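User: quick one - fold this with zinc ion bound?
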Amino acid sequence: MFFFFIGGITHEVCQVLKREAGWCINCQSPTDLVNTIKVLRLFFVPVWRWAAKEHFMHCNSCGLYYPPSLSPENIRCQFCDREVDAGYRRCPNCGSDL
Ligand SMILES: [Zn+2]
Ligand SMILES: [Zn+2]
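Assistant: Sure. Structure tokens for the protein plus zinc ion:
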């Protein structure tokens, strides 16, 4: 008897830690910082869930998960050395181009 394993481990949001904490590296939409659980799926049916204890950035627009370290959230102005939100093109503190 052959058994075809169709499935895999996916992430699911279990708690939103911070809304609009960064910007999607894929589509530039606001992303939430979330706590995730891992879900094992067999034939697209969730069969097992467990706490991953990992924080991910989750994009509501394209559904992408990625580690917060990839997020361009904390960029630092090279002129005044303050942290600037990645949504800015220009430093709000000193007006320099970023
Ligand atoms: Zn996205
Ligand atoms: Zn600045």
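One thing worth noting: The mean pLDDT is 84.
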